[in-house]
């Protein structure tokens, strides 16, 4: 990591390195150079948090990104005021990774820092006041009033005051005008004091004192003494019930949570008496929010093809950094991961396993926990701030040498990764849309692995075209698994022709005859059914039958989704909602009808068709709570649900043996992805959801309902030849200049005023056209959704040659252009959003 210290490979302790570049949480695309005061030289470390003055009046907390000896040319460097960390919070590899991310994804390194640190560790929090060191009170140019003097007096006693302290000093609540005046007179500085929001969890526990454990007699005597003190006796009995020390005296050491001991209504004062009399002792203990789990199962014995895949993967790793494991659904990729993870952990390196959205894949997490127990940390998107900090600290301390996590886990403080695995690597949810950094976690992870000199394994049944392309060019190693574990067969596909059924009057509540038959068959054999529809709510919109009115969001150019249960129309883009009107707001007609099917309505119609079946629904609306998803999965696993209707949540990683029928409610909707990736996405989505069927003995059945059974894509999916499909699609990608042949950058210009937004987008377009690299600039066009939350959207799409030099130059120039445009008064309030590798 020496390169971080500038060209001279000096350790930062060397006296000649007297400047530090500090990462600050401000929207300016660079670090800021500060002078390192002599007395702090020996303490300065990359990754440590520091306090610095920013501008004339602000004090900020930042992280040291670089130490060097080049004085800035444009300004005189101010000194670093304070170092907060003895142990750096962030390691040099992470900083290198942040720098790369900000450059590659065209965002500010402060934004990366903000995304990377869990908010529990995040820096600025409380505003504090300190005396301005450059202020000479004796020779102040302005007179101070009495209250101002009082504050300054207090600051001579204390190096800093909180706002609350100031209120106390003055005995009044309205201190802002006084502080403001003091700031204007340059007598004080207001700064954000770093306070970690993280609060450790501490429990009070009690246990028997030593004598009573080692000597059975004394316990008997004690019971005799307590015979007339039933309240104390009750506590003692309860303790012995919960902590069976006769079976194992060692159990007494851990004791029992005091709250638990008293939870059945025993008296606290009696417990106090017992403690006073030396029967019990109480002690405090730091509790891990993330509990300890003992490994309970061995890794499975690999099948022959799994063993061979492991060998091939390791073989490729000898020469290549990245390997793509292309294994059909149910081929047993998880056990292959387990084998590799074990080997890397034994060699002393760390492992990171990325999953698309952890809540969606608890099955795999449970399986891994059985094998790895508490060595494994889970970085969950539904974890609280405090829990996230514990995972972070667990990685720092070495408690977790292996982490399973969602995309943000690439920011954890690993220092010696040996392997990163990305499961379901084709998943679009690895890309972060908002806010910046708009990174693709798979791509970023490959870069992270490179910094650690680690290996990356990408796993998927339907690889992304980018990865498959790299594998076909030999850049990545390629390993294939073509049969399911235990030789269960791949499911059988059927197309249900909705148009034909309609003609023959066979459609019932929008379900085809074939789907109904297959469901009926499955229910008869006590098997389970999954129904996939990627649209939550009751119906996508409601429409007036008389005048054609549809409910539109007031802030966005989209129609409102009808949610029957809540009796509301909701915008899925901005969250706007309103009550369902009883008559048409345009013409007054009461003939309002619901159009199209969301999961809520499908659940309702299947209930009508199969009244004896037990229904379940899994979508964003039914899984909002922390364990909502888990509860539905548990019920489904326990066979308490016969038919489960769900959005893409049910397509990922579910492994339930009794699912034999998968229905794709609206196959046509899947085809209409508004993007050059439509084909790729449709293929992936259908294959993934189909892969949930027939994972054990029974062969699965997949029914795709469609009005276009002739569509060529269905034919390709049914054929199941991914390679052929890929090669055909590539022809178009090449012809029309799309990835993987070019790199895309999308820039969205946003403004509340249509004209102003358009003008800014055109100005940007004109400037970009001048950048001297090989490229195609498309747009600006009104966004796919013209307006979101009252902001008009204009999009430019840039197709860049795949060369690294082209991209670097383009991004550099783009940064300059945006800064210049932003400086134009007319464009001050315009927002520009740069999305590199959009998906
Ligand atoms: P994939 O992730 O490739 O779709 P899974 O890893 O979920 O497949 O494996 C499919 C099923 O086969 C799971 O139920 C898993 O427990 C089982 N399985 C896979 N490999 C083994 C093995 N070596 N021994 C026993 N069961 C296995
Ligand atoms: Zn109407
Ligand atoms: Zn809206």
UniProtKB/TrEMBL annotation:
Gene Ontology molecular function: 3'-5' DNA helicase activity; ATP binding; ATP hydrolysis activity; DNA binding; zinc ion binding
Keyword terms of this UniProt record: ATP-binding, DNA replication, DNA-binding, Helicase, Hydrolase, Isomerase, Metal-binding, Nucleotide-binding, Primosome, Zinc
Cofactor: how bound: Binds 2 zinc ions per subunit.
Helicase C-terminal domain boundaries: 579-745
Gene Ontology CC: one annotated term: primosome complex
Top-level enzyme category: isomerase
Listed name of the protein: Replication restart protein PriA
């Amino acid at each position: 990591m020496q390169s971080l210290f500038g060209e001279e490979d000096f350790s930062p302790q060397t006296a000649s390195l007297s400047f530090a570049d500090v990462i600050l949480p401000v929207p300016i695309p660079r670090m800021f150079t500060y002078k390192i005061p002599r007395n702090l030289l020996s303490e300065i470390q990359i990754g440590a948090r520091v306090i610095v003055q920013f501008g004339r009046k602000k004090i900020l907390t930042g992280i040291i990104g670089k130490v060097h000896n080049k004085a800035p040319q444009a300004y005189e460097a101010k000194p670093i005021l304070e170092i907060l960390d003895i142990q750096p919070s962030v390691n040099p590899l992470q900083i290198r990774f942040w720098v790369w991310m900000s450059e590659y994804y065209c965002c500010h390194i402060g934004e990366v820092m903000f995304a990377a640190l869990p908010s529990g560790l995040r820096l600025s929090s409380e505003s504090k006041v300190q005396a301005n060191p450059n202020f000479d009170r004796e020779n102040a140019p302005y007179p101070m009033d009495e209250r101002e003097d009082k504050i300054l007096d207090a600051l001579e006693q204390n190096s800093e005051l909180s706002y609350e302290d100031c209120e106390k000093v003055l005995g009044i609540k309205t201190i802002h005008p006084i502080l403001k005046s003091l700031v204007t007179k340059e007598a004080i500085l207001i700064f954000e004091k770093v306070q970690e929001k993280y609060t450790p969890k501490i429990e009070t526990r009690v246990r028997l004192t030593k004598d009573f454990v080692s000597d059975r007699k004394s316990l008997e005597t004690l019971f005799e003494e307590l015979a007339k003190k039933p309240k104390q006796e009750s506590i003692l009995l309860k303790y012995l019930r919960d902590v069976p020390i006769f079976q194992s005296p060692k159990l007494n050491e851990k004791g029992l949570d005091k709250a638990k001991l008293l939870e059945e209504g025993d008296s606290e004062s009696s417990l106090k008496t017992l403690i006073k009399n030396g029967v019990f002792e109480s002690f405090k203990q730091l509790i891990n929010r993330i509990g300890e789990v003992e490994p309970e199962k061995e890794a499975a014995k690999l099948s022959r093809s799994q063993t061979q895949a492991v060998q091939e993967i390791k073989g490729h790793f000898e020469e290549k950094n990245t390997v793509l494991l292309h294994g059909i659904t149910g081929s047993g990729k998880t056990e292959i991961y387990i084998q590799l993870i074990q080997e890397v952990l034994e060699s002393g390196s760390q492992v990171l396993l990325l999953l698309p959205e952890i809540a969606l894949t608890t099955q795999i997490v449970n399986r891994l926990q059985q094998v790895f127990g508490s060595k494994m940390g889970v970085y969950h998107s539904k974890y609280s701030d405090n829990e996230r900090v514990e995972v972070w600290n667990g990685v720092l301390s070495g408690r977790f040498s292996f982490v399973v996590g969602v995309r943000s886990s690439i920011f954890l403080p690993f220092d010696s990764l040996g392997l990163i695995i990305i499961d379901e690597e084709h998943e679009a949810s690895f890309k972060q849309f908002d806010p910046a950094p708009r990174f693709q976690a798979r791509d970023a992870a490959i870069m992270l692995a490179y910094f650690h000199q680690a290996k990356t394994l990408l796993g998927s049944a339907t690889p992304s075209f980018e990865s498959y392309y790299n594998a076909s060019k030999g850049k990545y190693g390629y390993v294939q698994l073509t049969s399911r574990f235990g030789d269960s067969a791949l499911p059988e596909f059927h197309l249900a022709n909705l148009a034909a059924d309609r003609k023959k009057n066979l459609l019932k509540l929008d379900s085809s005859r074939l789907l109904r038959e297959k469901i009926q068959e499955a229910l008869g054999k006590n098997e389970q059914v999954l129904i996939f529809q990627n649209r939550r709510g009751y119906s996508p919109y409601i429409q007036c039958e008389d005048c054609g009115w549809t409910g539109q969001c007031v802030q966005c150019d989209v129609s409102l989704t009808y949610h029957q249960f809540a009796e509301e129309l909701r915008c899925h883009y901005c969250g706007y909602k309103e009550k369902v009107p009883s008559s048409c707001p345009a013409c007054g007609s009461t003939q309002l009808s619901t159009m199209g099917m969301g999961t809520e309505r499908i659940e309702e119609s299947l209930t009508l068709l199969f009244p004896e079946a037990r229904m379940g629904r899994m979508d964003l609306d039914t899984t909002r709570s922390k364990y909502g998803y888990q509860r539905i999965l548990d019920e489904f696993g326990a066979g308490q649900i016969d038919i489960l209707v769900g959005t893409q949540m049910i397509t990922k990683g579910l492994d339930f043996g009794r699912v034999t029928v998968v229905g794709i409610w609206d196959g046509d909707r899947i085809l209409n992805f508004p993007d050059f990736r439509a084909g790729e996405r449709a293929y992936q989505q259908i294959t993934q959801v189909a892969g949930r069927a027939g994972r054990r003995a029974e062969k699965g059945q997949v029914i795709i309902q469609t009005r276009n059974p002739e569509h060529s894509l269905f034919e390709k999916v049914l054929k199941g030849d991914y390679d052929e499909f890929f090669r055909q699609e590539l022809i178009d990608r090449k012809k029309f200049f799309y990835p993987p042949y070019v790199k895309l950058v999308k820039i969205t210009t946003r403004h509340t005023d249509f004209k102003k937004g358009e003008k800014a987008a055109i100005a940007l377009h004109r400037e970009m056209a001048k950048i001297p690299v090989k490229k195609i600039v498309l747009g600006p066009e009104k966004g796919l959704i013209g307006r979101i939350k009252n902001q008009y959207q204009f999009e430019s799409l840039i197709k860049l040659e795949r060369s690294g030099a082209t991209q670097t130059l383009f991004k550099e120039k783009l940064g300059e252009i945006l800064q210049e445009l932003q400086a134009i008064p007319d464009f001050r309030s315009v927002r520009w959003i740069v999305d590199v590798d959009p998906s």
